[in-house]
Specification:
Layout (H helix, E strand, L loop, with lengths): L19 H5 L33 H4 L9 E2 L17 E6 L3 H18 L2 E3 L2 E2 L1 H5 L4 H5 L2 H7 L5 E3 L5 E3 L2 E3 L4 E3 L7 H15 L1 E4 L13 H14 L4 H15 L5 E4 L4 H7 L7 H14 L7 H6 L7 H11 L7 E4 L7 H10 L3 E2 L1 H4 L3 H5 L4 H13 L2 E4 L6 H12 L10 H12 L6 H9 L25 E2 L15 H30 L1
Length: 519
Amino acid sequence: MRRPGLHRQHWKQGGGSKGIYAKLTVVVVVLLICTFSVFFSATISGNRGSLEPSEINVEELWESAKSGGWRPSSAPRSDWPPPPKETNGYLRVRCNGGLNQQRSAICNAVLAARIMNATLVLPELDANSFWHDDSGFQGIYDVEHFIQTLKYDVRIVESIPEIHKNGKTKKIKAHQIRPPRDAPISWYTTVALKKMKEHGAIYLTPFSHRLAEEIDNAEYQRLRCRVNYHALRFKPNIMRLSESIVDKLRAQGHFMSIHLRFEMDMLAFAGCFDIFSPEEQSILKKYRKENFAEKRLVYNERRAIGKCPLTPEEVGLVLRAMGFDNSTRIYLAAGELFGGERFMKPFRDLFPRLENHSSVDSSEELVANTRGLLGSAVDYMVCLLSDIFMPTYDGPSNFANNLLGHRLYYGFRTTIRPDRKGLAPIFIDRENGQTAGFEQAVRRVMLKTKFGGPHKRVPPESFYTNSWPECFCQMSPSNPADKCPPENVLEILESQLENEVNRDLEALMETNSTRRTEI
């Protein structure tokens, strides 16, 4: 069943790939221009029209949010020369953390290579430390597509080549550096570049959050979007699994995905212990002591300011107050729920039509990797393609934050983002027996949130959560900087790349001619 309100253009790819590639690719060209055939007329606002505080139109939420005439576009809008043949050296990076933290790091690595005029070595994924999964970049992403998509931006190789000189083979050893967290561009153009020129290659590790997000250069930010939303495509087997799950879910109508972040690591990080048994609290406290810095955390204080993840029951109560009934089909993207069925049962009673990737698709490939990178990648794709996405704890969650940004770029797809701080006193009153007006109070809070439309990025909101306005454009803008690039931008970039290659060939021919003359 097609999602209403959004028509997608299909894009033929090499090798006859179909299915989910066509669904995901909303670009007319390979990597750059995203053009939608339907524009929505609305002002830039998180809410949908002038609804009264007690009204939420559920049917409207199943459609995409209003775009205000904006559409995604990560194409360059100013002079963007291709990478020269001769670079300053090789850049290796080790991306630590989970799949989505690594995804952001890969975007930063490409940008760092562009900044330093470096040849990027295919990023390493430190999968073992987090997922106990050694799939690596080649096991998760389509390498050929990644390299081809970014050919106008950076040179990429799968490994540092050996040097053959005077009949000898020599390996370049990359000089290891630990980059500062959120390093400015100036660090890369001075400290890192100096070491690269000295050694021929540098190895930046760890490489999570090692380049500042807020950069006063819109073209650099658009490069990040090209990497994130165009170049990083999962391998065909992952796409097929995701497509199969989405098709089965959508066969019965709309479906919603929820990132239920009620897991041990996040609960320990948040310091939300008191609702658990003494034995469970001991487990959480031990995990926190081993993995996070010591900090005084008082549960009642944390919860009152919205620092605790919503419980499964609270998630269900929010959805019910908004008007979703028990026929709503929900896909759960989550790890192992802490506390087990005791916490899940109240949610299941409210919304019995719950699914996850294992219940929808029991293929051996997915069952064997349900907790690894493959399982996380499938969850990501299903959540991206769902009609509505709801993160229950989007603060430090890279999975939720990246999806919010991707869904915004992928056509302002509806998101429901609970305001935990605004909801906290309402839930506390309910637990104390004050139930009158509960659902109306929840709706008033939720109507103040944003449902996926374009909105100004305000710290601490991440660029990867909201790339507006840098990676969006308008056909008839009031600000010239927001004007969409020309439709033939790919031809322009291709022409520039060909000219660069021709110049290299001419220089090579001239060098050979000079040598023959000397002989």
